[in-house]
Write a structure and sequence with these properties.
26 helices, five-stranded antiparallel β-sheet, five-stranded mixed β-sheet, alpha+beta
Length: 793
């Protein structure tokens, strides 16, 4: 086992965004037999429907066969617009030799993360539990019961040299896994149990590891201080890395920081937000011809995007730019909102008035080909030399900025400044520019188009409804409001069951008409409620408030944790996986709990119903400890807390809703349940000895030293001695331990009751101050407090 784990971790390969390989467009290959995925509604699964791999969709049939044949499961998770998913589909899953090995030795399951975000979240957390950050495609090996053994991301068919390193090939991995399974089957099983336990701890850490923390302004201040803005190009990043590397828009975090920038003495923050919004507008991450934002930038300056366009990014950014315009009416913000919504209406709206999910990054098997230009091509399409020179000046076209041969259009400075330098009025400047852009856009439309994922996702549509509604309100655009109404009506009328519960997806199986499919998740409810409430803000029409209220009550009933607060990502009657999470971390989208808490607060303000107030407060109280320990990860919850604190200024009692799950004076950290008595013993022969008596309250325990379990090494009780503020070598004798087997089946050594630790150091100078520090972590089954360091003089 000790040799196995390092090999496992070495298999987890991060996505190589700098190595831009060609990928396959999702077209049906000629003469290749279809597999089971041909009958699925997911475009991503259908893209793999003619692989030689014997794919199963996620479901009981695959797991029953794996158990019957005693085979490991090969799990692959991705989404239709994912560039590296296409690369792996073309290179690896279309490889006959790889498929032959997979089919003979594994049960292969393919999952669309957008249809089954619950499955994706759990196995991504499992990969992270091994100490590796992940991405898509997500590749995992599982036991027949679905427990994760190990995984990675992109794997080519064979070992591949890249930038001085080597990516492990799928053929090497499969041979090694098969060999391990044959020779060390019990070790694989133990590995799976270990990672499963770590995954459960990770996903349930809010209720098993994190105590309550005060709901005060310090939590908000911590969240603001967490972020660092690039002072040159805007955006959030790491100052120690000079803000290099991949840059995401991070709309949720920017929305939180924008709200904080409106408070007194936050001018610097307001300027950083403005810089970010303007630099994104000037960059290649924004489609300068067609409108709309690509998913992220691969480098600091926002020039080179990852070219896929996601509905959720554009929905959130439209709402953010509209809100920014309300506070600071910059015409750049208005232009971006209008152009982005033109893009959504033109390319991502279906005939029923709801919104498609994504546009691929690739066309003709090449990432970005649809969007980039050569200098010669620009000159030829524009035609007039005068117009070409004008266009060159606007976009500062000189040397290629993409793969040494192509041009991604980006602005070197704001349009108003360029117009002034070229001695144009802004009216004449934009008239000339729009005419040339129209020529180029018409030419671009003739190219092979990126694949459009036509499935309709309830949660993402809720976000787009909010974007249209906010833009309609801010810019007084009735047509935007009408679009939001139509989309909301469709979801409420077509995506709900008879008992009022939402469905996740509206999509078609090949040969059939589109239909609602799949149970909804927490984000489907919380995002749609947000969209309806934003629409109510803009129109004051009662229907949207009543529908939001009904959905909120359904969400509370089927997803709420009535005992502790907060909401589970899956419904109480959902398929039971080996772990169940409460979504709280903001990524490319806000967490389901953060959006739920915000919407419930808003519902209480609009209806006065105490249930909504209590559930909102219970949710932020539940996650307060996590907000304290990871303040930059939960900005949607921080935004909700900030709104509550603003309300409490005039009424301090407003946040004193009943909290039946909170125990008065409940322990928060290990020091709350452990008493320590330090005793200095009589010096002998130049040695100073001491004893530490720890009294541990029932039913808590401390992790012993040694703990006897590699996964808990960092949790051991550790004694350290400092003389004059510096650590010195000490001889520490730890007491006898007690074995403990917890409810997950994990075995380790603990201290209970009263234990005595003894130690000795070289006799310090009489004038030197010295003290002893004891690092402890107190737990009981399924619940741990924050670690403490006891300082004993």
């Amino acid at each position: 086992m000790s040799q196995f784990i390092p090999f496992v971790l070495s298999l987890a390969i991060c996505i190589l965004t700098m190595d831009r390989l060609a990928s396959a467009d999702p077209k049906k290959p000629d003469g290749r037999k279809a597999n089971r995925l041909a009958k699925e509604s997911s475009p991503y699964l259908i893209q793999h429907a003619h692989n030689p791999v014997d794919w199963y969709p996620w479901g009981a049939e695959a797991f029953e066969r794996a158990k019957k044949e005693k085979k490991l499961i090969f799990l692959s998770i991705g989404y239709s617009a994912c560039h590296w998913c296409h690369v792996m589909e073309r290179e690896t899953f279309s490889n006959e030799a790889i498929a032959k090995v997979l089919n003979a030795n594994f049960i292969c399951i393919k999952v669309d993360r957008e249809e089954r975000p619950d499955v994706d979240e759990i196995y991504m957390a499992a990969l992270n539990a091994t100490g590796v950050s992940g991405g898509w495609p997500l590749t995992m090996f599982l036991t027949p019961e679905g427990k994760p053994i190990f995984g990675g991301t992109y794997f080519p068919p064979k070992d591949k040299k890249v930038e001085g390193g080597t990516i492990t090939g799928m053929d090497s991995i499969l041979k090694r896994v098969m060999d391990l399974n044959e020779k060390e089957g019990p070790a694989l099983e133990a590995q799976a149990n270990l990672i499963a336990r770590r995954t459960v701890e990770t996903l349930e850490q809010a209720n098993s590891r994190v105590p309550l923390a005060p709901l005060d302004r310090e939590l908000i201040a911590d969240s603001v201080r967490w972020f660092e803005f690039d002072p040159v190009h805007g955006g959030l990043g790491d100052r120690l890395r000079q803000f290099q590397g991949t840059k995401f828009p991070r709309a949720t975090a920017l929305s939180f920081l924008h709200s904080q920038s409106q408070k007194p003495k936050n001018e610097d923050l307001a300027n950083s937000i403005a810089l970010t919004l303007n630099k994104m507008a000037e960059g290649g991450i924004y489609d300068q011809l067609g409108g709309g934002f690509h998913r992220y930038s691969t480098e600091r300056t926002w020039t080179i995007p990852h070219f896929e366009k996601m509905l959720y990014d554009n929905a959130q950014l439209v709402e953010l730019y509209a809100e920014a315009y309300r506070v600071r009416p910059d015409p750049v913000y208005r232009r971006l909102v209008e152009e982005s919504l033109e893009f959504i209406a033109r390319e991502m709206t279906n005939p029923d008035g709801v919104f498609y999910s994504a546009l691929d990054a690739d066309s003709n098997g090449v990432e970005g080909e649809y969007y980039v230009w050569t200098k010669d091509e620009l000159e030829k399409v524009i035609g007039k030399a005068e117009d070409f020179e004008f266009f060159k000046s606007v976009y500062s076209i000189s040397e290629p900025n993409f793969e040494e041969k192509s041009q991604i259009l980006r602005l070197p400075k704001p349009h108003a400044q360029i117009a002034n330098e070229l001695k144009f009025s802004e009216k004449d400047y934009f008239a000339k520019l729009k005419a040339i852009q129209s020529q180029l856009f018409a030419h671009r439309e003739k190219r092979e188009r990126p694949f459009l994922d036509q499935k309709v996702i309830t949660s993402w549509n809720g976000q787009m409804i909010a974007g249209y509604a906010r833009a309609g309100e801010v810019f007084q655009k009735p047509d935007y409001l009408e679009t939001a109404r139509n989309a909301a009506s469709f979801l409420l009328e077509r995506m709900r069951t008879k008992d009022g519960r939402l469905m996740r997806i509206y999509a078609a199986v090949p040969g059939e008409k589109p239909a609602p499919r799949g149970n909804a998740f927490l984000d489907d409810y919380s995002y749609l409620i947000h969209g309806l409430l934003t629409l109510h803000d803009a129109t004051k029409e009662d229907r949207w408030l009543k529908e939001a209220e009904a959905l909120a009550q359904t969400m509370i009933r089927w997803y709420g944790d009535r005992d502790r607060g907060g909401f589970f990502f899956t419904a109480h009657d959902h398929e039971k996986l080996f772990a169940r999470s409460k979504d709280s971390y903001d990524g490319a989208q806000p967490s389901g709990n953060g959006m739920a808490a915000r919407s419930l607060l808003k519902l209480w303000q609009k209806t006065g119903k105490a249930e909504f107030k209590e559930e909102s407060l219970r949710t932020i109280r539940y996650f307060a400890g996590s907000m304290k320990s990871s303040p930059g990860s939960m900005t949607s919850l921080a935004m909700c807390l900030d709104a509550w604190l603003d309300l409490s200024v005039n009424d301090p009692s407003i946040m004193k809703a009943p909290m039946p799950a909170v125990v008065k004076n409940a322990p928060k950290e290990a020091a709350d349940v452990v008493k320590a008595l330090f005793k200095k013993l009589k010096p002998e022969k130049g040695v100073q000895s001491f004893s530490i008596t720890l009294t541990i309250e029932e039913p808590w325990h401390l992790y012993a030293n040694p703990v006897g379990n590699d996964s808990l090494k960092d949790s051991e009780t550790v004694v350290e001695v400092l003389v004059g503020g510096k650590a010195v070598k000490a001889e520490i004798e730890y007491p006898d331990t007690q074995p403990l087997k917890d409810s997950s089946g994990e075995m380790y050594q603990v201290y209970k009751g009263t234990v005595v630790i003894t130690g000795s150091i070289p006799l310090p100078n009489d004038q030197a101050e010295w003290d002893v520090r004891v690092r402890i972590l107190a737990c009981k089954d399924r619940l741990c407090l924050l670690p403490s360091t006891l300082k004993l003089k």
